[in-house]
Design a protein that fits this description.
The chain is an alpha/beta fold and about 240 residues long. It is built from 10 helices and 6 strands; from the N terminus they run E-H-E-H-E-H-E-H-H-H-H-E-H-E-H-H. It has a single domain, classed as Rossmann fold. Strand 1, helix 1 and strand 2 form a beta-alpha-beta unit. The radius of gyration is 17 Å and the shape is globular.
Length: about 240
């Protein structure tokens, strides 16, 4: 067993809400001794993917090894940063995520997003897409509270960014070990997203977990187990290299 003090820091990049609050179930499932850094996106600033990449790049650990996890919306951010091969980066994790628009058939509708009254839409479609049959009152409340913190224009820009993104070449340029956490009951990001990722990085580890798109929220214990296993593997590599 690897000493937990040797584990790299787990840097968490949030989903569409950007608040980082929805990582609470995962943080509770991880041992307290595991070093974690939660990064957050401004709720009142319109930032596209390139701007978010620059913002995150400035907040990465400089004095210790780390693993970068991109949840859903943040997958392209994590991949783009990993492609730059920052010092200290030891591994990359993508959770319920993608490198290209996971629903390409909807791309022509992108201009219509500016007309969508996001603040006035009913919550049930979001509940069905993100939580589905795993929905609970506590998860619904947490999701609604996180989204309520973000201005509509910010959410709209993030949705438009997803429709236009293509970080496939950035993924090819990555070299660190890659773990993909796939939700078996994801109604938002189809299995084709992970298939593409494995085509571009055929050495990627893929783990399917019984859960919805909000995997880290609905199945935090199992997700934490796989994350710890991945981080232990990286720590073993580090020990082996340092011991030469």
């Amino acid at each position: 067993m690897i000493d937990l003090t040797l584990l790299p820091t787990l840097v968490l990049l949030p989903g569409m809400d950007g608040t980082g609050r929805l990582f609470d179930p995962l943080l509770q499932a991880l041992p307290p001794s595991v070093p974690v850094q939660v990064l957050r996106y401004p709720a009142d600033q319109v930032l596209d993917y390139p701007a978010l990449v620059e913002r995150v790049g400035q907040q990465l650990p400089l004095d210790r090894p780390f693993v970068l996890l991109g949840e859903s919306f943040s997958g392209p951010v994590a991949v783009s940063i990993a492609a730059r091969r920052p010092a200290g980066l030891k591994g990359l994790v993508l959770c319920s995520s993608f490198v290209r628009n996971p629903r390409s058939a909807l791309a022509p509708l992108s201009p219509l997003l500016k007309l969508l009254p996001l603040r006035h839409l009913p919550f049930w479609p979001m509940d069905a897409l993100l939580l589905g049959g795993f929905s609970t009152p506590a998860l619904r409340a947490a999701l609604a509270a996180a989204i309520a913190q973000v201005q509509s224009r910010v959410l709209r820009t993030r949705l438009q960014s997803v429709m236009a993104v293509d970080a496939s070449q950035a993924l090819v340029a990555t070299e660190v070990p890659l773990l993909y956490l796939q939700a078996r009951h994801d109604r938002l990001v189809p299995a084709s997203a992970s298939t593409l990722i494995r085509q571009l990085r055929n050495d990627a580890q893929l783990v399917a977990i019984n859960g919805p798109h909000c995997l880290l929220q609905a199945a935090p214990t199992e997700a934490a187990e796989h994350l710890l296993r991945f981080m232990h593997e990286l720590a073993q590599i580090r020990v082996a290299v340092d011991g030469r």
